[in-house]
Design a protein that fits this description.
Layout lengths: L1 E5 L26 H8 L3 H10 E2 L2 E2 L17 H6 L6 H5 L2 E6 L2 E6 L4 H8 L7 E4 L6 H17 L6 H12 L8 H6 L7 H6 L13 H15 L5 H20 L5 H16 L2 H11 L5
Parallel strand pairs: 1-5
Antiparallel strand pairs: 1-6, 2-3, 4-5
Helix pairs in contact: 5-12, 6-10, 7-11, 10-11, 11-12
Bound molecules: iron/sulfur cluster.
């Protein structure tokens, strides 16, 4: 079995009580059966509190949308009492995403977490993938891994303007960015935070990368490719990476251009789009008539 991860992955550390957008607020947290079984066996006040706080396999959020175990200091009472082993799979794994192949597991850090955004943008170029272990991939997987390596290298080829790299990515995979009412499409997607509606108002695609920000958008493009490329839909998922990079660029160009605002836009885009299977599928649906 081979494990693959970005070289910066081991540096990740949760901001805990210093996080401004704590992932224990506003998200419904499902509890996996193994952890539920563990919680069922807990006695005493904490056991009672667990049973009162769980309904239909998930934590019931408080009226203020906070997880019932997130205390006023921004810390998790379960971790404080038992350590990280007491967490359910989702809490333990967040903000990691995983891709599974026949003999390989790949992991990355999702940008809905502000610590992950900060870590990505602090990386020197090029970002490398690290692998551990051996694998026996299928022939199709081998082709896909080789193609993806080319695409990730192209995305980070600093001798070309980023706009040209994105155009080449599309032509290499057989895609184009179709003419659509992209603003209307994004506005029609399901919403996590109503404030996202206002952010989307200036959206226009295709969009230029704002001058002086190529390095940051290169990393964003790398992230979207690594996160979304799938062997069975290379053209569509490459186009999704390009659309996503340009969508963030378009919103960023319309307002104050600071590192803090770019980081916040990336976090919002990830939370609103990437963490909704429905929204990602809708966008892929708009792109899937590309020749594959
Ligand atoms: S969003 Fe990231 S930094 Fe914030 S609490 Fe969650 S994992 Fe930690």
């Amino acid at each position: 079995m081979k494990y693959v991860y970005p070289a910066f992955y081991p540096e990740f550390s949760c901001l805990a009580d210093r996080c401004r957008h704590n992932c224990c607020i506003g998200w419904e947290i499902d509890i996996d059966p193994e952890t539920q079984n563990l919680y069922d066996q807990v006695d005493g006040p904490l056991g009672n509190r667990l049973r009162e706080s769980i309904c239909d396999g998930h934590f019931v959020l408080r009226a203020d949308d906070r997880c019932p175990f997130l205390n006023d200091r921004g810390l998790c009472d379960l971790i404080t009492a038992w350590g990280e082993d007491a967490l359910c799979d989702i809490c333990h794994d967040h903000p990691r995403f995983r891709h599974f192949f026949s003999d390989r597991e790949e992991v990355g850090l999702g940008l809905c977490c502000e610590a992950a955004v900060d870590l990505l943008f602090r990386q020197p170029s090029p970002i490398e993938l690290v692998s551990m272990g051996e694998e026996t991939p299928t022939a199709e997987e081998e082709d896909f891994f080789a193609l993806r390596e080319r695409l990730l290298a192209l995305a980070q080829n600093g001798s070309l303007p980023l706009a040209k790299r994105m155009a080449r990515l599309l032509s290499l995979t057989g895609g184009t960015l179709p003419a659509r009412d992209w603003r209307g499409i994004f506005l029609s997607l399901e919403r996590l935070d109503d404030g996202w509606t206002n952010e989307l108002q200036p959206l226009t695609l295709p969009a230029d990368i704002p001058a002086g920000w190529e390095d940051a958008f290169e990393k964003l493009l790398w992230y979207f490719l690594y996160r979304h490329l799938r062997p069975e839909a290379v053209a569509t998922t490459t186009a999704l990476a390009v659309v996503s990079t340009q969508a963030v660029a378009s919103l960023f160009a319309a307002g104050e251009q600071t590192p803090e605002r770019l980081a916040e836009l990336c976090r919002q885009y990830s939370a609103e789009i990437e963490y909704s299977d429905e929204n990602t599928a809708r966008l892929e649906g708009e792109l899937c008539d590309l020749p594959c």
